[in-house]
Amino acid sequence: xxxxxxxxxxxxxxxxxxxxxxxxxxxxxxxxxxxxxxxxxxxxxxxxxxxxxxxxxxxxxxxxxxxxxxxxxxxxxxxxxxxxxxxxxxxxxxxxxxxxxxxxxxxxxxxxxxxxxxxxxxxxxxxxxxxxxxxxxxxxxxxxxxxxxxxxxxxxxxxxxxxxxxxxxxxxxxxxxxxxxxxxxxxxxxxxxxxxxxxxxxxxxxxxxxx
Length: 211
Known about the structure:
Blueprint: H1 2-17, H2 19-35, H3 37-40, E1 50-51, E2 54-55, H4 56-63, H5 65-75, H6 77-98, H7 102-170, H8 173-184, H9 199-210
Antiparallel strand pairs: 1-2
């Protein structure tokens, strides 16, 4: 727990140094100024009362979706949810104390927050899916590399055995015959009736007798 808390200052500093943070802050300030023009002292003539059949304050609340969705897209669902909480706190005073129809204002505020949070959750699910796809590709690549290494090892072993067999096949019978004759010059042919005869020794004996 202490490690997690110790990481928060670094994360906050990283967010503050990011230019996107200041873009989100400017958007929130703009939406808030547009939402409270009389209370701030700005002329209301600059802001139309109706737009696309919606009241001006309904449009103001919809505008808050821009920083909420932007924060979720850039920084992730956690920052997007935090931005949604800030936007909720900024919209509640008008919805509760200033709006001539608080139930409608609260409903619109809740709808905007719900849509913003849903968008952030969708971003999170999409990123998790992309990360999973990348991990699966990496695992598949690692499996292919392992299989290739096994095949190469088996190929090297096969080539080695083939070379050994080739060397054995190139050994002449004259090199094998003396050892074979020394060991098996006397014995039976399986029936115990006739000794084995070494061709080389028979040739030597024939040469001796001829002399």
